[in-house]
Design goal:
The protein has 155 residues and is an alpha+beta fold. It has helices at 16-33, 91-107, 121-125, and strands spanning 5-10, 49-55, 58-66, 76-82, 112-117, 130-138, 141-148. Helix content is 26%, strand content 34%. Strand 2 and strand 3 form a beta hairpin. 26% of the residues are buried.
């Protein structure tokens, strides 16, 4: 993992090889591993800020971040993944930390709403996300809407 680098880019900043690597990672994890055929290319990538770790051109962890009013009234992030070869190295924790920091720095808010796969509720709660009680199936996978509202106090 010595050659690993983190990247944060808008859609228009992607190189073709970067975009290909990100889409391949999303399909490998969500479509193949989770056996979930769904329309990954949903016309939201163009509105997102993309965050990922890569090593030698291979994506290790990824998510996309949205400003207010795109997915929810609040900012949000989604398509969170860690690829098979990168699991168990705490990249998921780093990824969520970068996603939260990116939202706070670019969109100047700490209010974030996400759609979390149920098995990750404890993981997200460690970052201040709270279960809203809204539960649903998304592509036949149980999800829960979670929200993070961290108030910043001026000193």
């Amino acid at each position: 993992m010595s050659n690993m680098i983190w990247k944060i880019k808008t859609f228009d900043e992607f190189t073709v090889p970067e975009l290909y690597a990100v889409l391949k990672a999303r399909i490998d994890v969500f479509v193949i591993e989770q056996n979930c055929p769904y329309p990954d290319l949903d016309n939201y990538d163009q509105k997102a800020v993309h965050i990922w770790a890569e090593e030698d051109g291979e994506v290790l962890a990824y998510c996309r971040v949205f400003d207010k009013g795109i997915k929810y009234d609040e900012t949000s992030f989604g398509r969170v993944l860690t690829t098979e070869q990168a699991r168990g190295k705490s990249l998921g924790k780093q990824l969520i930390q970068y996603a939260v920091e990116t939202i706070e720095n670019r969109f100047h808010t700490s209010e974030i709403r996400i759609s979390a796969q149920d098995y990750l509720l404890r993981f997200y709660s460690a970052f201040g996300f709270v279960d809203t009680g809204k539960k649903y199936l998304e592509d036949d996978i149980p999800h829960t809407e979670m929200v993070r509202k961290v108030k910043r106090y001026l000193v």
